[in-house]
Amino acid sequence: MNGATLTADRNGNTSSAYSFDGVNDYIMVNHDIISGNASRTVSVWIKDEMPAGQHSIIYQFGSQEAGGGGYSPGGNFAITRDNSKQFHHNGHDIGDLPSGVISQGEWRQHTLTYDGTTLKYYIDGVLRNSANAALNTWDGKLHIAKNRHANQFFTGKVDEMRVYNYVLSAA
């Protein structure tokens, strides 16, 4: 962990979520959590506090860089927020999966599922987008609030991140 601080979570419980300053705060879990094209679900509560015109990765598993150089299509499994404040899934070279949801600075639950062929993006329990995808997450280490390939940091809060090695149902 680098600089992230404990803060109140979405329910007001003290020291139960992490706050990131957008300058140099991040958390890294230094072992493979997600890899290849295995089924997965990642669910997290996010409170975006970045200004418009700023792009950042909120969390990222894997790497767009393939072992031995070059790029790995589908190598990332990440949620980003673009300059217009819209949330996206980013899988590098498999196409962006926009949510259609604009950040308003409130807590939102983001859930991505992948069953080996279909990627689904839910926000607050509502399916926002889905697509067929051939993911190949490489070097599945987790970075929260930092782009591992660029000097980009997230400004906001993250709470209750859960990672499953199976697909949760929509119910």
Entry summary:
By secondary structure, the chain is mostly beta strands. The protein is built from no helices and 13 strands.
Set out the fold topology.
Blueprint: E1 5-7, E2 17-21, E3 27-29, E4 40-48, E5 56-62, E6 76-81, E7 86-90, E8 97-102, E9 107-114, E10 118-123, E11 126-132, E12 142-144, E13 155-164
Antiparallel strand pairs: 1-2, 2-13, 3-12, 4-9, 4-13, 5-6, 5-12, 6-7, 7-8, 9-10, 10-11
Mean pLDDT: 81
**What is the makeup of the main sheet?**
7 strands, antiparallel
Protein structure class:
mainly beta
Q: What strand line-up does the widest sheet have?
A: 1-2-13-4-9-10-11
Name the helicity range. Answer: under 10%
Number-wise, the strands total 13
End-to-end gap: 34 Å
Supply Rg: 15 Å
- The DSSP helix count reads 0
Large-scale geometry: globular
User: Any low-confidence stretches, pLDDT <50, length ≥5?
Assistant: 66-74
The ordered string of helix (H) and strand (E) elements is EEEEEEEEEEEEE
Strand content: over 45%
Question: What would you say this structure looks like, in words?
Answer:
This protein is mainly beta and 171 residues long. Helix content is 0%, strand content 46%. It contains no helices and 13 strands. It has strands spanning 5-7, 17-21, 27-29, 40-48, 56-62, 76-81, 86-90, 97-102, 107-114, 118-123, 126-132, 142-144, 155-164. Strands 1-2-13-4-9-10-11 form a seven-stranded antiparallel beta sheet, with no helix packed on it. The chain is globular, with a radius of gyration of 15 Å.
